[in-house]
Specification:
5 strands, thioredoxin-disulfide reductase (NADPH) activity, alpha+beta, disordered N terminus
Length: 195
């Protein structure tokens, strides 16, 4: 039983760290390409939806096509209430699994009779622990999932999956960047007059 608890805690830590704001194996919440000095292209993505691979592919192509663009990626965080619910569930899950393994009846503490599902969990500890673990992880991931894939160039939004409902194709993104770069070059060439 002790090995099951250790395995479940370790798996939970791996899942939570993967769903956190870590995009490239970097401990911080941002993945940066520091060597570029041009405009800043920022991706805010939902890591739990699996958009990390899409971000990495876009980053690779864009850095080859536009070597002067700085590219950053970060996790698009959900609303605070959903983050708090996910954090609470993470702790509650571990406490509940611990109570199941130890065999303590939390209902007796409140002077209540244990429901039949608790009695079933005491008779089937392995299944009960796995059920608690996977169900709570499913709810946690749903709370942390935003579905976002937001792109800004110099803090100006150029694409929003939350508004459009879909990811940009590579061709669309390159066309947007081409247009923005041409506009920036054109704006830089206009002489600035002081009033």
């Amino acid at each position: 039983m002790r090995y099951l608890l250790v395995l479940l805690v370790a798996a939970s830590a791996v899942i939570r760290s993967d769903a956190s704001a870590n995009l490239g194996g970097v401990p911080s919440k941002r993945l940066k390409m520091q060597y570029a000095t041009g405009p800043l292209l920022k991706f805010q993505i939902c890591v739990s939806k699996g958009y990390r691979r899409v971000f990495e592919e876009y980053m690779r192509v864009i850095s080859q096509r536009y070597p002067d663009i700085r590219i950053e990626g970060e996790n698009y965080l959900p609303q605070p209430i959903y983050r708090h619910i996910a954090s609470f569930l993470s702790v509650f899950k571990l406490v509940l699994i611990g109570l199941i393994i130890v065999g303590k009846d939390p209902f007796a503490f409140f002077g209540m009779q244990a429901p039949s599902i608790w009695q079933w969990g005491q008779e089937n500890k392995v299944y009960a622990c796995m059920m608690v673990f996977f169900l709570s992880n499913m709810i946690e991931n749903q709370c942390m999932s935003t579905g976002a894939f937001e792109i800004t160039l110099n803090d100006v939004p150029v694409w929003s999956k939350l508004e459009s409902g879909h990811l940009p194709s590579m061709q669309q993104l390159v066309q947007i960047l081409d247009n923005e770069m041409k506009l920036n070059v054109h704006m830089d060439s206009i002489p600035h007059h002081r009033s």
